[in-house]
């Protein structure tokens, strides 16, 4: 009897974490519209949210890397999540719901991306030792 989970020896479920980060990136994308923001924070959230959603969805779809190295997309998401946290301070938006949405969602994206980096690294080292 074969063990069908033998290719998933990592303890960090990278596709699930990346999928959740993609959902949060989509939330960041739409948050300016839902919370009626104004100014550069709207453009920032659209661009950064789209980048997070696309990179995280790619990581979820191809946890072993595909055309990119497995660590590339999660490593790009970490600074985007940090920027999402810092952006309300940089753009000087009032401490309302959009401010806190950016801070909380950015922190969650950063944590999920860092966990995905660790999980991708574990997956990459496990694959390299088997080859």
Number of domains: 1
State the shape.
elongated
Number of strands: 0
* Largest sheet, strands/sense/barrel: none
Give the % helix: over 70%
Rg measurement, Å: 16 Å
Number of helices: 4
What is the ordering of alpha helices and beta strands?
Answer: HHHH
Estimated structural class: mainly alpha
State mean pLDDT (0 to 100 scale).
85
- Strand residue content: under 5%
Poorly predicted ranges: none
**Amino- and carboxy-terminal Cα gap:** 22 Å
Task: Describe the fold and architecture.
With 131 residues, the chain is mainly α. The chain has one domain. It contains four helices and no strands. It has helices spanning 14-34, 40-61, 72-91, 97-130. Helix 2 (40-61) packs antiparallel against helix 3 (72-91), helix 2 packs parallel to helix 4 (97-130) and helix 3 packs antiparallel against helix 4 (97-130). The radius of gyration is 16 Å and the shape is elongated. The model has no long low-confidence stretch (mean pLDDT 85).
Brief summary:
By secondary structure, the protein is an all-alpha fold. Helix content is 74%, strand content 0%.
Which tags fit this structure?
131 residues, mainly alpha
Question: Which secondary structure elements does this structure contain, and how are they paired or packed?
Answer:
Elements: H1 14-34, H2 40-61, H3 72-91, H4 97-130
Helix pairs in contact: 1-2, 1-4, 2-3, 2-4, 3-4
